[in-house]
Amino acid sequence: MGNETKALSLNLDLDALKPLIAAVVTATLDAREAGQAQVGEPGRLAYGEAEAARLLGLHTHQLRDMRLRGEIACSRIVGNRVAYQRSDLVKYLEERRVK
């Protein structure tokens, strides 16, 4: 037996696939929205710089530099400490989403 290659032909009814595609898109969007709601700990309002950087997958100095350039919002709390609201972290990610 040799190395014979057989061609495969596949005919699909595109109209029959539309409901499946719509269901997959809906499930993906629902999962994305659920993931956004779970950024950080439920009920927690704000995070320190190190925690916020970890949630975004950044080094602390990268987040600090972005804050100083005005690329991400923050709050100043007691002792002039920096705090990042969960909503600001999600907004930052949404604004940089690749479409």
Describe the structure.
The chain is built from 4 helices and 3 strands; from the N terminus they run αβααββα. The chain has helices at 14-37, 49-56, 60-68, 86-95; strands at residues 46-47, 75-77, 81-85. It has 99 residues and is mainly α.
What are the defining features of this structure?
99 residues; mainly alpha; elongated
Describe the structure concisely.
The chain has 99 residues and is mostly helical. Helices cover 52% and strands 10% of the residues.
Task: Compile the SSE list and pairings.
Elements: H1 14-37, E1 46-47, H2 49-56, H3 60-68, E2 75-77, E3 81-85, H4 86-95
Antiparallel strand pairs: 1-3, 2-3
Helix pairs in contact: 2-3
Radius of gyration, CA atoms, in whole angstroms: 23 Å
Number of strands: 3
Mean pLDDT: 85
Report the uncertain regions.
Answer: none
